[in-house]
UniProtKB/TrEMBL annotation:
This is Cation:dicarboxylase symporter family transporter. The keyword Phosphoprotein does not apply. Keywords: Cell membrane, Membrane, Transmembrane, Transmembrane helix, Transport. The lineage of its organism: Bacteria, Pseudomonadati, Bacteroidota, Flavobacteriia, Flavobacteriales. Its main location: membrane. It is a multi-pass membrane protein.
């Protein structure tokens, strides 16, 4: 937690320095603003390329390990099926709410920044004009997995990872276990790299903010206030939907559940980590009356497949960045983006700001300048507080709902 606080402080300091430097150039040396922006933006480019460097191996290893370990679903049978149906439905609803509200509220239309990555814009135009079922199939199914890795084609990597993970799951523990263990170690190593790379984030923020303020002045700050307002409004809508569904399933016991998990919710909110409250959440759900076998299966699975707050944030942030750069996306492209995020977002739970990695990959895939992520990085900490707390609520509701469906929810509260 100390490391995360230091990083947050460093990002805030970088933000202030970036504003000061960019504002100074904008006011005193307006004729030099363009070359200055071009040069200092390289700091942001370094950070973005570091993030892009780990996208392919991160998606591959986490998905393969997650799917290979899902052979447990066969043993638990109907509990696992119900859990996965909840996870998929909740994820789609969360993504859809984010998509609808960001299009309705249009937080990115407060100001428009010039597209600095011309190649990305050209690619977007090409893909929107020449889209066909044949192109879609070619884009999904890799001709070569090495080519997919080399070009960071995330969707193709996801397809290969799913097939490989299913194959390992059906190979038997004797053969599969060493491979799964190796990939698990590699995945943890890459996740460790995410932590290191995030320490380059302050430089990326400094470069991005200084470049934007130098060329656009102080108008950009209207965007931050509106972005936070609209995002937390969207979160409130998501909470209302989740709590309504929870009430339909477990009735008045929903209020008892909320009293039980209020401490994990507050911890997740203050630390921006839903992983930090995992042990406490297990304890409180068992005390609430959930069967311990159901809790021990669904909750770990939910931490990879049921991150409702993060899911909503991904569509919200991706479309917001497109709006900032004045890129209009068709309904078909946005629905495709929703389905892509549904697949690529699985398996990287518990890593601070891991959703940013997926957003960068998605922006690149749809021709949105990925450097736009640096613009929302300074306020991402505040967004992370809300989405971490929402992730905890979603998993608590999922566990309680499946326990209720199975007739395994003790009405008078359970013992550990």
């Amino acid at each position: 937690m100390k490391g995360q606080n230091k990083l947050f402080t460093a990002i805030v300091i970088a933000l202030i320095l970036g504003v000061a430097i960019g504002g100074f150039v904008h006011i005193r040396y307006p004729e030099s603003a363009e070359p200055f922006s071009k040069n200092i933006k390289l700091l942001g480019t370094v950070f973005i390329r570091l993030v892009q460097m780990i996208i392919a191996p991160l998606v591959f290893t986490t998905l393969v390990v997650g799917i290979a370990k899902m052979s447990d679903i066969k043993m638990i049978g109907r509990v696992g099926t119900k859990a996965m149906l909840w996870f998929i439905s909740a994820s789609l609803v969360s993504l859809f709410i984010g998509l609808v509200l960001v299009n309705w509220l249009e937080p990115g239309h407060v100001t428009t920044l010039p597209i600095q990555d011309a190649a990305s814009a050209e690619e977007l135009v090409k893909s929107s004009k020449g889209f066909s079922m044949e192109d879609f199939v070619k884009h999904i199914i890799p001709k070569s997995v090495f080519e997919a890795f080399a070009t960071n084609e995330v969707l193709q990597i996801v397809v290969f990872s799913i097939m490989f993970g299913i194959a390992l799951a059906n190979l038997g523990d004797e053969y599969a276990q060493p491979v799964v263990k190796l990939f698990d170690i590699i995945a943890h190593g890459i996740l460790k790299m995410v932590g290191y790379i995030m320490w380059f984030a302050p430089l990326g923020v400094l470069g991005a903010i200084a470049a934007v303020v130098a060329t656009n002045g102080f108008e950009i700050f209207k965007v931050y206030a509106i972005y936070l307002r609209d995002f937390f409004f969207a979160l409130a809508i998501l909470w209302a939907v989740l709590l309504f569904v929870g009430y339909l399933i477990i009735g008045n016991r929903l209020f008892e559940l909320l009293r039980r998990i209020k401490e994990p919710l507050l911890i997740a909110f203050s630390t921006t980590s839903s992983e930090a409250v995992f042990p406490k959440l297990v304890e409180e759900l068992e005390r609430f009356g959930c069967n311990n076998r159901v809790v021990s299966f669904i909750l770990p699975l939910g931490y990879s497949f049921n991150l409702d707050g993060s899911m909503m944030y991904m569509t919200f942030a991706s479309i917001f960045i497109a709006q900032i750069y004045g890129i209009e996306m068709s309904v078909g492209q946005q629905i495709t983006m929703l389905l892509v995020l549904m697949l690529t977002s699985k398996g990287i739970a518990g890593v601070p700001r891991a959703s940013l990695v997926i957003i960068v990959a998605t922006c690149s895939m749809f021709g949105i300048p990925p450097e736009g992520i640096a613009l929302i990085l300074p306020i991402d900490h505040f967004c992370d507080m809300g989405r971490s707390m929402t992730n905890v609520l979603g998993n608590a509701l999922a566990t309680s709902a499946v326990s209720k469906w199975e007739g395994q929810l003790d009405n008078h509260g359970g013992d550990l």
